[in-house]
Design goal:
four-stranded antiparallel beta sheet; about 0% helix; flat; mainly beta; single chain; about 325 residues
């Protein structure tokens, strides 16, 4: 174990998708405090206690904290540091937002969006590069935005997704629901996605590389050139992301034992089914799979389990070479690699 810290002011909530792979800070929200607690991942010590401008979503990359706060008739999109959330820029977006913001960052640009159909892209100097009040969207690659107008009364996928550059020019479009594979480690967007017809496509051009024949599957992510999936909730498989060659398969029982009887459905010593997998990290050719308090290392080139062991508390956040665990009172950092 690298370090541990007793959270004496309430439980620490790290947020879903709030930290990029290169983040040099850990953002922690505590139940009993209006301020944020920014921690140093090396030792768990506090770097700052900035006060947000309102109810916010966050995204951290490097030493920069991006925040999207909404209050009344506007949204404030900011970038700052562990001590001042608006040190780099603060942009007011004239929208009466009632839904959570989503933040994505690519290079020197950051995008804030919402299912209320608005999208604003801001440079690190605070200048607005692209803005629309008709679509929602996010970065999916090097200066590429996937944009879509979503009507809550229409079925999902009924309107096309238009991939644009930062000038607003259309690069390509697709109409089918898709799933973009995440890179392992880091859970960034990779360079492939899978459409509703099973075509594995290049994210930069939209061109199909190969067709994935299975229909009942969960997309785990991309580890190097290996696309990792789970089929029928029973088999984890590795495919070549370039041509679809099947490389290996392993039974998911190796990762997910049968649920233990427990009065508390979410007890830390319990295990979830594979269908609810949401935590994957990696180091080189090793992918770490976590469910409940079980940690398993899988060699993604060979499809073989390298090691497995139980941990104290839920594994609920990855951060570079750390896995962060919590039992509700203590935050622990487990170092791997």
């Amino acid at each position: 174990m690298s370090w541990q810290r007793v959270m004496d002011e309430g439980s620490c909530w790290l947020g879903v998708g709030a930290h990029a792979a290169d983040a040099r800070m850990i953002l922690c929200e505590k139940d009993a405090s209006p301020d944020l607690h920014i921690l140093d991942p090396k030792d768990g010590k506090t770097l700052g206690h900035p006060t947000p401008a309102g109810y916010s979503n966050y995204y951290i990359t490097g030493d920069t904290i991006y925040s999207c706060a909404w209050n009344g008739d506007s949204v404030v999109f900011s970038a700052g540091t562990a001590t001042e959330l608006s040190e780099h820029f603060s942009v007011k977006i004239p929208v009466a937002n009632s839904n959570a913001c989503t933040i994505s960052v690519e290079g020197d640009y950051a995008a804030a969006t919402s299912s209320s159909n608005w999208l604003t892209v801001v440079g690190i100097d605070g200048s607005i590069k692209y803005q629309s009040f008709d679509v929602q969207g996010e970065f999916i690659g090097d200066q590429l935005l996937a944009t879509q107008e979503v009507d809550g009364d229409e079925p999902y996928g009924s309107t096309p997704v238009v991939v644009r550059d930062l000038e607003g020019n259309e690069v390509y479009r697709y109409s089918e629901p898709i799933e973009i594979a995440r890179e392992i480690p880091g859970r960034r967007f990779s360079d492939v996605f899978v459409d509703n017809y099973g075509d594995v496509r290049d994210r930069g051009t939209g061109e199909a590389r190969w067709n994935y024949p299975e229909r009942q599957y969960s997309l785990v992510g991309l580890s190097g050139d290996v696309l990792v999936t789970v089929e029928d909730e029973t088999q984890m498989r590795g495919y070549s992301a370039n041509d679809g060659q099947s490389l290996w398969d392993i039974n998911t029982d190796r990762f997910f034992p049968i649920r233990q009887d427990s009065a508390n459905e979410y007890a830390p010593d319990d295990f979830e089914s594979f269908g609810s997998l949401r935590r994957v990290t990696g180091d080189g050719e090793t992918m770490l799979v976590t469910t409940g308090s079980r940690l398993t290392a899988l060699d993604t080139e060979k499809g073989a389990i390298s090691w497995t062991f139980d941990t104290k508390g839920w594994v609920f956040r990855e951060h570079q070479n750390l896995l962060l665990l919590s039992d509700g009172e203590t935050l622990r950092a487990l170092k791997f690699g």
